[in-house]
# Entry
Amino acid sequence: QKSFEAFRELAQNERVLAVIGPAYEESAQELASLAENFRLPTFSPDSQSLKLNQATPYFFRNSLTNFAEAKSLAHFSYQTLGIRSLAIVFPNEPKGIELKNYFSQGFQEWGGQIAISYPYSPDTVDFSKIVADLTAGGLSFQALFVPDSYQVGVMIASQLAFSDLTRIQLIGTS
# Structure
């Protein structure tokens, strides 16, 4: 609500030529229609949705799309890091699923193998069971792709170290 009010206030000021923001995806989706209504160019520094650019010619983003980031990471993992087999641990929410799908598709197109794909609740803070499940049954993989925040990456890395799995390469998104 506050973002709507702030945007309207800026849009009604004749000296405002453009808006930089919103910073978050959820706000960006809500404000794209206002940018269209007021015909006010709006630049979002962090929005990753392709839909926003297609919705209005007044909304611009300055970040990689999930598609571009995931496909680039898949290429880098296979070609530069030499990884041929990996596991994916991803948050079971739309962005995590989308990144997992794009990465999986790209990695497999290069010839890589996905040993396992493991979803978790976005509010998970204890990854001990997940790490135990990944290593159960003799699964073998060189790397772990985690399309989530660096904070989650740190929690998973800590659990991998605790489980003496320090040779697994971690790959994550921005």
